[in-house]
Design a protein that fits this description.
Blueprint (H helix, E strand, L loop, with lengths): L7 H10 L8 H12 L4 E2 L1 H9 L3 H4 L3 H11 L5 H14 L3 E9 L2 E12 L2 E6 L4 E6 L5 E5 L4 E7 L9 E8 L2 E9 L5 H10 L10 E5 L4 E5 L2 E5 L4 E5 L4 H9 L3 H31 L2
Antiparallel strand pairs: 1-10, 2-3, 2-9, 3-4, 4-5, 6-7, 7-8, 8-9, 10-11, 11-12, 12-13
Helix pairs in contact: 1-5, 3-9, 8-9
Length: 290
């Protein structure tokens, strides 16, 4: 399915929506493009809603053209799989040599993904799923530090094989709360077939149990999960419970309509109720058989 998915129309729609062209060539163009791409938030509302209406996971995968149209119409973005896939396809259309790689997090292996771009002799990473829209050069050895609005980002090469492709890299962030390990990736291109397998597996992960959104701003990083918001800059982190209504908050901060948020919350509530009912039925069966 993914092998035949292109990015031409998505790129045309995206560039047209900017109201101006992304200018420059090479690294200048790449940085400008990544900056504008940051308008797509990480959000799982669109994924929650689509999984409720499409029982086949392959029908739930939001491909580039759909993601752009949904953003223009509803301010949606996507999760790491749809955002990284779209970014890679768009950059290919724009003439870059790029590829997707998988990453491991505390929650498991191959649960995250990002895009690698080769420009000249240097390889760069862009991670839209983690709101790292800076074009970060990866080190041939040692550690590379890059200052982002919300944190200092470190990309650390580990293991043997310095000065060669296929290395393993750890990504850390340092903010006002300290230094934290975020994920590990290998600079090893993943095929569209294997990427699709991991994407399909993501529909059964706990990340779809609660609403989650994040976006980057010039001042820092805005994150929302369940009914808590967190705004992080390099100087401080402000975390608070959203008390005036989740729908209102998301509409004001992310531009996604309250109706969509209400629908996603209803779907999640029904899933929890269904899961609770199944466990209750199993417990009754277990008691009755004893």
């Amino acid at each position: 399915m993914l092998e035949t998915a292109g990015g031409e129309e998505a790129t045309r729609l995206f560039m047209s929506s900017l109201g101006r062209s992304v200018t420059g060539t090479g690294l200048t163009f790449l940085k400008d493009f990544a900056l504008h791409f940051s308008r797509f938030p990480y959000e799982n509302i669109s994924k929650i809603v689509k999984t409720a209406n499409a029982p086949d996971p392959r029908e739930c995968m939001r491909l580039p053209q759909e993601v752009v149209i949904d953003h223009l119409e509803h301010n949606f973005g996507g999760t790491c799989f749809s955002l990284a896939f779209m970014l890679e396809r768009m950059l290919r259309v724009s003439g870059f040599h790029c590829y997707k790689v998988m990453a491991d997090m505390n929650s498991g292996r191959n649960v995250h993904c990002l895009v690698m771009v080769r420009e000249g002799e240097i390889r760069y990473m862009i991670d839209p799923g983690y709101a790292l829209y800076g074009v970060i050069p990866i080190p041939e050895e040692g550690t590379r530090q890059v200052t982002c609005p919300h944190a200092m980002v470190e990309v650390e090469r580990s293991g043997p094989g310095a000065h060669s492709e296929g290395g393993v890299y750890n990504v850390w962030t340092t903010d006002s709360t300290g230094r934290k390990w975020r994920y590990r990736f290998r600079d090893d291109p993943i095929s569209d077939t294997d990427y699709e397998t991991h994407w399909i597996a993501s529909f059964s992960k706990p990340t779809l149990n609660h609403i989650c959104l994040t976006r980057i701003t010039p001042q820092g990083h805005l994150y929302f999960r369940k009914d808590y918001s967190r705004f992080a800059s390099r100087a401080a982190i402000n975390k608070q419970r959203v008390r005036d209504g989740v729908e209102k908050y998301i509409q004001e901060e992310f531009g996604i309509g309250a109706d969509w948020v209400s629908l996603a919350r209803k779907i999640l509530s029904e899933r929890r109720e269904s899961s609770w009912q199944r466990r209750s039925d199993l417990n009754r069966c277990s008691w009755s058989s004893e």
